Amino acid sequence: MVYLHERTWWKEAIVYQIYPISFFDSNGDGIGDLKGIHAKLDYLKDLGVDVLWLSPIYRSPLADMGYDISDYRNIDPRYGTLEDWDTLLHGVHDRGMKLIMDLVVNHSSDEHQWFLQSRSSKEHPKRDWYIWRAPNFDSSGQKRPPNNWRSVFQGSAWDLDEETKEYYLHLYVSKQPDLNWENPDVREAVYDLMKFWLDRGCDGFRMDVINLISKTDGLPDAPISAPGEFYQPASMYFANGPRVHEFLKEMNEKVLSRYDIMTVGETPFTHDASALAAYVLPKNGELDMVFHFELMDVDSPMEGPQRVPLIKKDWTLEEFREIIVRWQLYKRDEGFWNAIFIENHDHARAVSRYGNDSPQWRALSAKMLAVLEITQGGTLYVYQGQELGMQNFPRSWSIEEYKDVASQNYWNRIMKKRQEESGNQNVDMSDVLDGFAHKARDHARVPVQWDASSNAGFTTGTPWMRVNEDYRTWNAASQLEDPSSVLAFYKRALKLRKSHPLFTYGEFSDLSNGHLQVFTYLRTLGGSHALVLLNFSEEKVHFDLKGVENLDTYQLLLENYESQEVKSTKLAADGRVFLRGFEAKVYISG
Ligand code: GLC
Ligand code: CA
To answer: Nearest residue CA, atom 12 of ligand 1?
Structure first.
């Protein structure tokens, strides 16, 4: 059989993302930990995943939940010790799985030794490890940041160091100063810490905002796209910058190519396919794949060049489908490889966004989305709780329950603006909370719902974040017992993906023909074909299959409804298909 893509383990892998603080708490302090992950390895093996990706567990002040690292070579005591990590790794490897770590090297924590030294004086050899600039002055002689860049989490992207009277750049919060990748010593230090983990047995990296490591020369002011505001979205000057590919080629040459590992880059702020492909195409020798955010952005409005993630925008199936189809077809002949995901720790729950989380449709639409995921070409990622159909927490939760710094900063900024505009302290924020209820990152960060005991069995103590009350009926223990559960469906679906290489490697062709509710496609590899039918609406719909040959050879492989009204495992000879609300079906031939 001829494969367009060379086969490798990481292409076929099903990756499961763990957000450790909310996964499972082994010692009752309310915080998930490494021993907790170890305790659930059999659950994960049984689910059918191959690779575990851990969101950061390094020592960190947790200003951005560990995406602010103060020691790259140690585990935060809240999560455990290096020995616990070794034990976990053994447990993972013993079960035939692999473990990848989150590499967060666009920035460190301001509590990292490197930054403490860098800020200590202008003369310190590590001064140039971060991005320091002299202040600007306004007409009244007041100090101003060196440019108008807005930090991704609001406010200026610069902070003044009072001692040395210079500003440092932080694309995220002030406690996340950006490393200066222009400095070769910084790059060597990063490569060293990567080797530290790889030599210890780690099987690869997910690379945090890796497309931001090179900034445009001269750090020019961003054009005004948010009129009336001082700080402007500036991703055109910090995403996919001039030297990013040079740096990644160097990293590949010096580190990645020397190990049998997998790498996936997180590449936000760009929808430009050819810019993203440059990181992935095998001939470039950089990364194995990247996470693009087009699908995640489909329900976010634009503000100048950037999306506003915390406001909900309506989306259509047509837009959604067009994005998936385009990426499924993109540069296959050159070996471009996709990363397939619909949830992670930075986004609200998929069933609440792209499915329908009302009681009638929740399980069905969660399963329909599972089918969408397992039938796409690329490496598949599943986020913790996705396999249980975990949904957003309720709109009735108040702002106090939102622990994410991105939510809090956004809330405070809007509130302040409204207070200033109205001269009144009491301003209506209900529309902002509406947006949060749909879109906030917090929804993905509540504890995993393990069983019906108190706190969803996540902890015997007080959980760091409130548990969603629906755990009493929606939890892993009860779903393990129930063959019709979302979890049981995931297990079946993941197994099918693994046993049919066409889902991972096959050609993709869209057959949807502009249908308003249905997404239909054919996957083909050699002589085998899979036909996927997905109804994205609550309505009963008809679909006419056109252009599919030998309809009579197709057999039903997977469906999300338990019982067929008309029991049939075949397609109708005339190609007319009837789908119930959120129904998903996969047929296979050859
Ligand atoms: C990535 C992470 C996100 C974090 C940001 C800054 O987008 O996934 O959680 O806030 O980088 O490190
Ligand atoms: Ca704990």
So the answer is: 67
pTM, full prediction: 0.97
Going by C-beta distance under 8 Å and a sequence separation of 6 or more, which residues neighbour residue 300? 307, 308, 309, 311, 312, 313, 439
| Range 292-298 average pLDDT | 95
Q: Kindly give the distance from the C-alpha atom of residue 3 to the centroid of ligand 1, in angstroms, as a whole number.
A: 35
Domains of the chain: 9-109+184-492 (3.20.20.80), 113-169 (3.90.400.10), 506-589 (2.60.40.1180)
- Cα torsion for 498, 502, 504, 507, to the nearest 10°? -170
Backbone torsions φ then ψ of 3, nearest 5 degrees: -105, 135
Q: Does ligand 1 lie within 6 Å of residue 381's CB atom?
A: no
Return the DSSP state at 252: H
pLDDT score at 304: 82
Write out the H or E segment, with its range, that includes residue 419. helix 405-422
168 within ligand 1 shell (Cβ under 6 A): no
Gap from CA of 110 to ligand 2 centroid (Å): 25
Question: Quick check: CB of 172 below 6 Å from ligand 1?
Answer: yes
Band of the pLDDT at 547, cuts 50, 70, 90?
A: confident
Question: What gap in Å lies between CA 99 and CA 85, rounded to an integer?
Answer: 10
Task: State the DSSP string of 499-560.
Answer: H-HHHHH-EEEE--TT-SSEEEEEEEETTEEEEEEEE-SSS-EEEE--S-S-GGG-EEEEES
Pairing verdict, β 166-169 and 158-161: antiparallel
Asked if residue 4 has pLDDT above 70, the reply is no
CB atoms within 10 A of CB 302: 12
How many other CB atoms are found less than 10 A from the CB of residue 420? 10
Of 364, 316, 372, 315, nearest to 343 by C-alpha is 372
Task: Work out the angle between the directed axes of helices 405-422 and 430-439 (0-180°, nearest 10).
Answer: 160
